[in-house]
Structure formats: structure tokens, C-alpha cells
Amino acid sequence: MTLISIGNARVDFGATEIFRDISLTVGSGDRWAVVGRNGTGKTTLVRLITGDLQPTSGAVARMPGLRVALMDQHRRFPDGMTLWEIVADAFGDLRTLEQSLATQAANLEHDHGEEAMEKYGRDLERFEREGGYQMSAKVDAVLMGVGFDPEAAKATSIGTLSGGERGRVALARQLATPAEILLLDEPTNHLDLETTAWLEQYLRDTDRTVICISHDRAFLAVMANHVLHFEGGTAFAYEGSYESFLVQREEKRLTQQRQFDKQQSKIQSETDYIARNLAGQNTRQAKGRRKLLARMPRLSAPIGGDGVMALRLSAGDRSGDRVIEAEHVTVAVETPNGTRELLRDVNVVLERNEVVALVGPNGAGKSTLIKTLVEEHPAHAGRVKMGPSTTVAYYRQDVGHLPLDSTIYEAIATQRPLWERRQVQGHLGRFGFSGDEVQRTVGTLSGGERARVALALLTLSTNNLLILDEPTNHLDVESIEALEDAIEAYEGSCLIVSHDRAVLRGLATQVWEVKDRQLIIFPGSFVEWEALRAENKIKAERDAREISQRESEKNAKVRDRERELQRERERADKAKEQAYDRSQGKGGQAKAAPTSNDVRKAQRAADKALADAELRVSMLEAKIAGITAELDDVTLYDTPAGVQKAASLGRALDDARDALDDAVHDWTAAGEHVQQLKA
Fold it and tell me: Could you tell me the pTM of the whole model?
């Protein structure tokens, strides 16, 4: 079923053409990757799809009643709202209906009229039909998926979160919104590796249509089954995976190049013939060929890599074998509540020519660790030693080191005061800035433009240690590929903090993982680290299943023993009644006292019941201790799956405590029974 159809759309802003001749058909269940350089019109296409913008020419048709979920890029939520309320508010009318049903149910206690009953029935049927009973579960699932504890989210105010955390809440709200189409704009920005993997699986499993603008090639390779590529002032649609798109695009360019070269060769041949024969015996044929040549439709030159950022990184003087060394370092930050420890006992050596991937959850302390290693942030304990010949070039995640009040031209000219204007213009031209554009103020630039200015400044220095903190954020795919090539050709050492797995897979020779306030060193490539991590995940899941099975078997044994204890208690109570009856005799007449054998038998049964009750108490106490130990393990909360397991363990702990209360009660009763028999 077609949801959106775009035919030969062109969009102009004033005298500037954004794109032309775009045709696209989006079907139900399609997963589209929208790729291309910054500024080619990807965001403009989103506005066409939502209906916020009409094409200058061409047509856009949408299925009647089509619902589109778009992330609030500004993340403007009332500071007093909790995270759970913000995500649940995505259901809009359904939440209102839920509140109305609660009010109607309360009113039905005293209003039993037929009209009120019918309205309540209709609204209840609609609530069930539209998925109202699954609403809370969906909110919990997406919150857990993007890294928030659903229970804690009910008490956490949005006003207490950072910009990155707000982005994850906005993503959760978008995913929870009932809509046929999900429009995602750079959804993996601010997501760590675990959350990105969850989002990949979520999008693969959803039956909704997805249109995603992203520069994360590894993410697109998993998610997409269609690709829309912006280049040359238009966009081309490709069917198939992202890898298939790369192959098709290259084949298309080669075909265009062959056709263009063939036509150029023919034009040259005809031009030469005309020049030789125009004034000779074959002038008639020459004039005829000239007319044909003038009418020949000219093929455009193939669209290729023109305009891609040109990036070259120079290492300068060679560093020592040990570039940076840390010994027993503790990394901490000061907060209003005191010192907060991020990492402890860090012992690491960054060696010459290593390309290190620094990975870990958001907020774990990666950026602070980098600042500690380059001595911008003091170590709370331990010692950091930088090699005597080590020089550092540092690309910061927030590009906050840029001169926001300066023009782009001034930012470069200040660093190269001896350069002539043509040299400054030429340098900026290699990063996509030309003409009057270089006079724009840095503070007015977009995120991608600021990133290119930061890289243009980075290439002006020669340093043998390159530190890149999330360098791919805001860069388009072509620019990321240019950055990859530059790092690969770089002759110094490199430390990269990134969530872009394609970059890390292609470059990293070693992995440093921040986990549980520790820095874990993996002496192998990022690809090898991912493989080991996948093996460990499979093993952990298998172990979890085995533990669950053992717990089930143990619980089954406990239940069987409980039933046996109950039967023992019933037999003991019956023996006690029979002994009492014998002592009284029939019809109230005195009967012979129970024999010593009867008494011993009753006492043995009571003692066994007491021992069994005590055993059950011990088993439940051991179970509670085991669950508590698992919940106290801080590593459990590192992943969405771990948080989900913690919630399950919490419920199991409550059940075990309830069972322990019952067991203690039975144990006490059994003890009293033993004392009565002895008396």
C-alpha cells in the first residue's frame, strides 16, 4: 500500500534551487535511508513529507488520514513533567480517553442509567481496540530501550536532564507515538553502542514505515531496505540494502562515465572532421555534421566526488614509544553534592602509532578521562605522564573551542597571519566554504558547518597525537569517509571517542572500554572486540536461561516439599485428634490413655514438620540473599537488557519475601505444636 507519492518535485527558496526532479514512492513497511551531503535538501524533503512545505513544482500525495511521528528537535518539554509523562503523552487522545473512563467508572457507582452504561461500553471498546491496555507497557519498553529505568522515569523531571538525555527522551516519545510513518533525523546521535543496537532491532521488528536521515553507515546497513541518495541537485532512489546501494551507485557512475566519455570522443571526432572539411571538397558533409552536432543532446558529466572535504593530517616530529602513560589514576569531578568518582585505578599506556577506540556508556566519563590524560583536568589520584616529544591536537565534541564571534575567514587567517587571501580562501575551499560564504560568523553556522571549520583548523597544526571526541557527529557520509582516509594516512597516534562503528571497525587497532568505573584494555581491533562481546552476550543469555531453569526446578522442589509438609501437618493434626478422642472415649465416657507408642509417633511427626519448616525458611533466606547479591551488582544496570532483568529480579525478590513470611509463620506454628506435645 502506497503511503506517500512524490512526483518530479522541485523546491526553490527565493532564487536558490534546493533540489529538482525528485520522484519517490513510499510503501507500507518500507525502511528508507536518506543520505547525502549536508545542505543538499534532506531536511527539506522531511518538510514535504509532513506537509509543512509545498513543492515549487511537482506533486506530493499522501494517504488520507496518514499519521507521521517526527522528533521534536528542539526538545521543548515543560520542566515539571516527568520522563514517563512526556513519553506517555505521545498517545494524546488515548490518554484522555483513559482518564475519561476512570471518571465514568466512578460515576457509574451512583448513576446506573442506560445511556451512561452504553457510553462507558463504547468508550471501553474503543480503548481496547486502539491498544489502550498495552499503552503503559509500550511506554516502559521504549524508555528501557533508550536507557532509562521506567520506574525511576515516573519520578525524574525532564528539567534535570542534559541535552543528550533530552534527545533520548524525545526519541522514546517519537517511537511511542501511534503513527504509520516514523521520520527519524540522526537518531543515533547521543546514543551509546548498546542503545543503538536496541534501536536497530526495534526498527527491523516494527511493522511501521521508517524514513531515516543518518550518517551512521553501520546503523543504516542493518536498518534500511531502500535508499534515497541526494547528489547533484536531485535525489535518486535505490531498492535494497545500504550495501546494495553502494554497489548500484558505483555501477551507475561507471555507466554514466562510459557514456559521457563515448559521447565526448564522438563530439571531438566530429569537431575535428568539421574543422578539416568545412572549407574543402567535403564542405557539404561538414556543414551537415555541424548541424547534427548542434542538435545532439549533451550528456552531463557523471556526478562523483567533487566538492568532498579534502582533509590531510600531518604528524610532524615523531613521538616516543610511550605517548601517554597513566598510573593508578582516579578520575573524578566536583558536584554540588561533593566529589563524584568516574574511574578508579586507571593503568594504561598509549603507544606510538596505535589507533585506540575509547568506548562506553554516555556519562561514564570518557571525555573527562581524555581531559585528564592531556592534563586539562587534574587527576584525583595517581599520576599521568606525557611523553617529552608528544604534541596534541584535540577535536572536542562540542566544538566549543571555535571563535564564535569571528568569521570563518578570520578563524583561519588568525592562525595563519602570513597567508595571503588566496591561500586562506583555498584552504577553506577544501572544506566546502567558498565565495562570500567565508564571511559568515562561526556562531551562525549549523552543527555540520562548525565541524568542518573545526577540522579545517585542526589540519593547520602538526601534532603526533590526535584526539578526536565524537568527530563524526553532524558530518555527512562523504565527509566521514574523507576523515577516515585522513586518519588512516596519519603517521601519528590517535585516540578516538565515537559511537560510529563503521569508523571504529575500519581504524581501531585497540579498544579501551569504560565500564563499572574501570578502564578495560582490549589488545585487538574493534572488530575482534565486537566479536568477543557478541560471544559473551550469547554466553550470558545461555547462563541466564540455565539459572532460570535451575530456579524453576528448585521452586518446583520447594512447592513439592511444601505440599508434603502440608500433608505431614494434616496427618499430625489427625493423629492429635484421634489421640484426644481415645482419651475421652465414646459418648463422653473415659477411654484408655494413648499408648507411649502413639505419643512417640505424634512427636516424631511434629518434629519432622518443624525440621521441614525450618529447612524451607533456610532455603528462602538463601534465595533472597542470592537475588539481593545480583541486584547489588552495578554491572547489571549497564544495558537495557540488564535493567529489564533487574526489574524481573525485583519482582522475584518480593515474591520470595512473601513466601518467607508464610514459611516463618508455619515454622512458628510447628514449633508451638512440638512444645504442646512435649507438655
Answer: 0.70
